[in-house]
From TrEMBL, chain A:
<feature type="transmembrane region" description="Helical">
    <location>
        <begin position="298"/>
        <end position="324"/>
    </location>
</feature>
<feature type="domain" description="ABC transmembrane type-1">
    <location>
        <begin position="168"/>
        <end position="363"/>
    </location>
</feature>
<feature type="transmembrane region" description="Helical">
    <location>
        <begin position="99"/>
        <end position="117"/>
    </location>
</feature>
<feature type="transmembrane region" description="Helical">
    <location>
        <begin position="212"/>
        <end position="233"/>
    </location>
</feature>
<dbReference type="InterPro" id="IPR035906">
    <property type="entry name" value="MetI-like_sf"/>
</dbReference>
<keyword id="KW-0472">Membrane</keyword>
<dbReference type="InterPro" id="IPR051204">
    <property type="entry name" value="ABC_transp_perm/SBD"/>
</dbReference>
<dbReference type="Pfam" id="PF00528">
    <property type="entry name" value="BPD_transp_1"/>
</dbReference>
<comment type="similarity">
    <text>Belongs to the binding-protein-dependent transport system permease family.</text>
</comment>
UniProtKB/TrEMBL annotation, chain B:
<feature type="domain" description="ABC transporter">
    <location>
        <begin position="2"/>
        <end position="235"/>
    </location>
</feature>
<dbReference type="InterPro" id="IPR003593">
    <property type="entry name" value="AAA+_ATPase"/>
</dbReference>
<comment type="similarity">
    <text>Belongs to the ABC transporter superfamily.</text>
</comment>
<dbReference type="InterPro" id="IPR003439">
    <property type="entry name" value="ABC_transporter-like_ATP-bd"/>
</dbReference>
<protein>
    <submittedName>
        <fullName>ABC transporter ATP-binding protein</fullName>
    </submittedName>
</protein>
<dbReference type="Pfam" id="PF00005">
    <property type="entry name" value="ABC_tran"/>
</dbReference>
<keyword id="KW-0547">Nucleotide-binding</keyword>
<dbReference type="GO" id="GO:0005524">
    <property type="term" value="F:ATP binding"/>
</dbReference>
<dbReference type="InterPro" id="IPR027417">
    <property type="entry name" value="P-loop_NTPase"/>
</dbReference>
Length: 374, 304
């Protein structure tokens, strides 16, 4: 599909989402199902204006910066108008009433955002950075102005603000700890496998076997395993290790991260041009010098690829920690699931997605830099 | 300068070199030729301890290399290889400055040296800040040569340095090497599988076969009638007599008595092969060479 066709398809998707799917649902409280307001009808003139702005982003004749800016304006207008519509729809209702976001809103938002990203991708580096900054401002300013305060998701957030912030921090700590543990395991193993290729086979098979175990089963299996270990060595409890809580979550996640990290370190070390290594040795570099000055710099781009996979996996897998008492954003998701409270699930799930996307984009940038210099 | 005394090398069960004795004097450009697997690269790598002998001694500058620190020994000997082995993540200047940096030179001295070397190998100074990926094959090989010369080593090892470049570039690089060798008087060990290259560049040619030296001498001597058959076949290219004439200057067969007035003249610096060609062209059996003359019988006498 050509770029222009993709843009038209996205615009069509946004229009259909707005016309046919529920945009806002008004319910008596946070748990009961509500009555759907269909499509753009609640948004009034803003819907037409937003669509017009999005349409401006489609034609290839419009310069990329203008197309991206128009699309961004359209998306921002959709967001703000939805906030206003939510406030209007709650007028005169009991304070427990909620105005939730419907499927049409989410589909329209994703289609609009994809349109902006597609146009923005054609911009040079500084242009993309500026676009990202404007996008953040377009979210933050109406947020500060209180435009979104009537949306059920935001009401839910306000009610649990401290818990959400704590869960986000905990999520990052769990993912960071799992990543650090996996690095501690994978880097020495990869180095050993590089020095003695015979050792690489069994290590790869073992780490690969972990990947075969379903994540949820591994998280669960670690609880009795850790309980058994703690019964044998009660002293470990003094170190803060418990059969439930962060320990099984971090251990299980690290087990999954070890394979991509190990593989990328090993692959990176082996990727160094054999002629460059031979030349370094022939010129009188020591083995340590060869590793430091030739092998590692040439391994970095490959390693960054593995690191990206591992970081994104860590952010996703740690979510399951919510099931074994480790806390984090996963705990919010599972609490929401058990209560059938969609907004609470989203409160956990949206930051997880945002974190994963942001981490992916950041490390991709790093990879690109390293790739360019090597 | 370099001496191999009864050197043997074994890799696992196979013997790569057996009981090699060889002397390379200071300032000599010595070519090691032979078919692949003959042990020529292995012989060269003994000099900077990239390969260790299983028996015998290798002497460099009069000292057994076995007693020397490999890293320090290697820094004192230049090394050029076919695949260049340039560091892809370092600029041309950083690549050239590798050994001086290892030796602890200060950065301004390295920068001056890099500029001088780029000039010596006739590369544009603007290339200094490029990465090797942006260079042509010939430029990369010149950078490789500059890198080997960076710390001004008195010995240069070259492992099929011109094997991977096109014929025209190879000819330029050979001329470059001849010029640099003449200008610096370094002792050079050149591994090549190209007999023509060996004969053209070297003052000493060593022919190897199955891990043993089968011939060792001046280029012209190795294509003479009394040279070992294998060397004569390998180096002669099917016409050892012509090859030998092409290696000898016309002066060696000159007769002092002047040539007939209508005899075709031979330019200065011509070889006996050029003389024979001129005679074939003109149908004459005598040529004018400077104030003297050159007769067909004298040329033919030298071909044996």
């Amino acid at each position: 599909m050509r770029a222009g066709e993709a843009g038209r398809a996205l615009l069509l998707l946004a229009v259909l989402a707005g016309l046919l799917l529920p945009w806002l649902t008004v319910a008596p409280n946070r748990l009961l199902p509500g009555t759907a307001t269909n499509g753009f009808s609640g948004l009034g003139w803003a819907a037409a204006a937003a669509l017009a702005a999005l349409a401006l982003a489609v034609p290839r004749r419009v310069p990329a910066w203008l197309g991206a800016a128009a699309g961004l304006g359209g998306v921002a207008l959709l967001l703000v108008a939805t906030g206003w519509a939510a406030a209007d729809s709650l007028e005169g209702l009991a304070s427990a009433a909620r105005a939730g976001l419907g499927g049409g809103f989410w589909l329209g938002l994703v289609a609009g955002a994809a349109l902006v990203v597609a146009r923005g991708a054609a911009l040079p580096g500084p242009g993309r950075a500026a676009l990202a900054a404007v996008a953040l401002a377009a979210l933050w300013l109406p947020w500060q102005a209180g435009s979104f305060e009537s949306l059920s998701l935001v009401v839910e957030y306000r009610a649990r603000q401290a818990a959400v912030h704590a869960a986000l921090l905990r999520h990052l700590m769990l993912a960071g700890a799992a990543l650090a543990l996996a690095l501690l395991l994978a880097v020495p193993l990869a180095w050993a496998g590089f020095r003695r290729p015979g050792a690489a086979g069994p290590v790869g098979a073992t780490l690969g076997a972990v990947q075969v175990v379903p994540a949820i089963a591994l998280f669960a299996a670690l609880i009795p395993l850790l309980a058994g270990l703690l019964a044998l060595l009660p002293a470990l409890r003094g170190l803060g290790l418990g059969a439930i809580g962060p320990a099984p979550a971090v251990l299980a996640t690290a087990g999954y991260l070890a394979l991509p990290l190990w593989r990328s370190v090993l692959g990176g070390l082996a990727a160094a041009d054999p002629a460059a290594v031979a030349a370094a040795r022939a010129m009188g570099m020591t083995e340590g010098g060869i590793t430091r000055e030739v092998r590692l710099p040439l391994a970095l781009p490959v390693f960054a690829g593995g690191l990206r996979v591992a970081v994104v996996q860590a952010i996703g897998l740690v979510t399951l920690g919510g099931l074994v008492g480790a806390g984090g954003l996963g705990a919010l998701v599972f609490e929401g699931l058990s209560q059938f409270a969609t907004d609470l699930m989203l409160l956990g799930a949206l930051p997880i997605m945002a974190l994963a996307l942001a981490a992916d984009a950041l490390i991709r940038l790093l990879e690109h830099r390293l790739g360019a210099s090597a | 300068m370099i001496a191999f005394e009864n050197v043997s090398v074994s890799f696992d069960a196979t013997e790569a070199l057996s009981c090699v004795n060889l002397q390379v004097a200071e300032g000599v450009l010595c070519a090691l030729v032979g078919p692949s697997g003959s042990g020529k690269s292995t012989l060269m790598k003994l000099v900077n301890r990239l390969v260790e002998p299983s028996a015998g001694r290798v002497l460099v500058r009069g000292a057994d290399v076995a007693g020397q620190d490999p890293a320090r020994l290697r820094r004192s000997i230049g090394y050029v290889m076919q695949s260049t082995g340039l560091f892809p993540h370092r600029t041309v200047a950083a690549n050239i400055g590798t050994v001086p940096r290892l030796l602890g030179w200060d950065s301004s001295r390295i920068a001056t040296r890099v500029a001088d070397l780029l000039e010596l190998v006739q590369l544009d100074p603007d290339l200094a800040q490029r990465l090797p990926g942006a260079l042509s094959g010939g430029q990369a090989q010149r950078v490789g040569l500059a890198r080997a010369l960076a710390a001004d080593p008195d010995i240069l090892l070259m492992d099929e340095p011109f094997g991977a470049v096109d014929p025209i570039t190879r000819r330029d690089l050979r001329a470059e090497l001849r010029r640099i060798h003449a200008g610096t008087g370094k002792t050079i060990l050149l591994v090549t599988h190209d007999p023509e290259e060996a004969l053209e560049l070297a003052s000493q040619v060593v022919v190897l076969r199955d891990g043993a030296v089968v011939a060792d001498g001046a280029p012209a001597a190795l294509v003479a009638e009394d040279a070992p058959e294998f060397a004569r076949t390998l180096l002669g290219g099917g016409q050892p007599g012509l090859r030998r004439l092409s290696l000898l200057p016309a002066e060696v067969a000159r007769d002092a008595c002047p040539a007939p007035a209508d005899a075709p003249a031979l330019p200065e610096g011509a070889t006996l092969a050029d003389a024979l060609s001129r005679m074939a062209e003109t149908g004459r059996d005598v040529l004018a060479l400077g104030k003297g003359s050159l007769r067909l019988e004298a040329v033919l006498a030298r071909g044996r």
